[in-house]
Write a structure and sequence with these properties.
By secondary structure, this protein is an alpha/beta fold. It has helices at about 5-10, 55-75, 90-95, 110-120, 135-145, 170-185, 200-210, and strands at about 15-20, 20, 30-35, 40, 80-85, 100-105, 130, 150-155, 160, 165, 190-195, 215-225, 230-240. The protein is about 35% helix and about 25% strand.
Length: about 240
């Protein structure tokens, strides 16, 4: 994709990622942003991440109303799983809307980051269980215990290089099958997103239908720059409007 901004604008950028690393001399001091009613910490992190995927606004704008609608239909707080929860944006949105959430991520630093975001957003007293664990282990354990959930939010990576490697092509379908046992035949809320090439919204929606029995709306994860360039980053699928 050609650059549309003048070279001077690129030189003035506060952060630059190139060649698999942040530019030398980048200031690593954290900063905060306010989005979707949350206050979230950002900083240059490994892999070029900054603690937030702004393209998730495609589902975050829907999530608040969906959780509130589910709570009203159930006449109780919904029980939700937030898998691959990273720094907690979706988890905190769901908890603020009235859900009880189990937030799961295999990265201890990511979960610690999510907990800082809960404090910064004034949501540290909400009913969130913060779990540093492999999502497959958690799903298997919850099945053995006979626990049930009303919905799930998950944003699986393409690969995971921890003690239990993850490959989306191999591991996502059986994970969804395990979730089907936790959610029952009519899950109240499903949000599935991915940044993996080949996993567009239509494919993710088909996976939801096949493995979770959940009809799904779908769309594209993307960013639109002030220059007009569109950066296409992946896809999303979610439950239809209730």
């Amino acid at each position: 994709m050609p650059r549309r901004l003048p070279a001077a604008d690129w030189r003035r950028a506060a952060l630059r990622w190139a060649g698999g690393a942040w530019a030398r001399g980048v200031d690593k001091t954290p900063w905060t942003i306010d989005t979707s009613g949350l206050r979230l910490e950002c900083r240059p992190a490994a892999g070029g991440q900054v603690g937030l995927f702004p393209d998730h606004a495609a589902t975050w704008g829907w999530l608040d109303g969906a959780v509130r609608g589910l709570a009203a239909s159930l006449a109780r707080p919904p029980e939700l799983l937030s898998l691959f929860g990273y720094t907690g944006g979706a988890t905190l949105l769901a908890a603020r809307a009235g859900a009880r959430v189990a937030h799961v991520d295999a990265s201890k630093p990511a979960v610690a980051w999510a907990r800082r975001n809960a404090v910064a957003s004034g949501l540290e007293d909400r009913p969130v269980r913060w779990l540093v664990d492999d999502v497959r282990t958690v799903v298997r354990r919850e099945r053995r215990r006979g626990h049930r959930y009303d919905g799930v939010i998950l944003d699986p990576p393409t690969y995971g290089h921890g003690s239990s490697p993850w490959k989306i092509d191999v591991d996502l379908p059986p994970l969804l099958d395990g979730l089907a046992a936790l959610l029952g035949p009519r899950p109240g809320l499903v949000v599935l997103s991915a940044h993996t090439p080949g996993y567009d919204g239509e494919r993710l929606a088909a996976l939801c239908r096949e493995h979770l029995g959940a009809g799904a709306a779908s769309g594209e994860l993307r960013l639109i720059a002030r220059s007009g360039n569109v950066l296409r980053l992946g896809g999303w699928a979610r439950s239809p409007e209730r």
